[in-house]
């Protein structure tokens, strides 16, 4: 495998991770009644730190906010899992920013998962395959 095709494969892997985690997080936030402003707070936190460790700091901030506000604990757990996975796979701030921005899009679109499907089981593809207006 050439270096360029290896880099393309890695970029595709990150895109899929970003989109799938974004779908899970956006749906979870909607179900839990998280405020849209929390996405902006997460993105601002991401920008406040340098280096890849900003992903870890943002994960900690998500946990703090859920605890402090008393809402969004499952969503904070998903955010932490996502950011940790991205960090462990070598992703940085750009991928995390995309993921959180995409999660906000899904949240704003108000797309609900099919009945009986938990957010952590979702992929973007499975979410979009349901009939329009589907969900609950």
Low-confidence stretches: none
Helix content: over 70%
Structural class: mainly alpha
Tally of helical segments: 6
Name the helix and strand elements from N-terminus to C-terminus, one letter apiece: HHHHHH
Provide the number of structural domains. 1
Major β-sheet annotation: none
Percent of residues in beta strands? under 5%
CA(first)-CA(last) distance? 45 Å
The shape is globular
- Computed CA radius of gyration, to the nearest angstrom: 15 Å
Averaged pLDDT = 88
Number of strands: 0
Describe the structure.
With 136 residues, the protein is mainly α. The chain has one domain (9-125). 71% of the residues lie in helices and 0% in strands. The chain has six helices and no strands. The chain has helices at residues 3-32, 37-48, 54-69, 73-88, 93-109, 124-128. The chain is globular.
Summarize this structure briefly:
71% of the residues lie in helices and 0% in strands. It is mainly α.
Describe this protein with a few key phrases:
single chain; 0% strand; 71% helix; 6 helices; 136 residues
How do the strands and helices of this protein lay out in sequence?
Elements: H1 3-32, H2 37-48, H3 54-69, H4 73-88, H5 93-109, H6 124-128
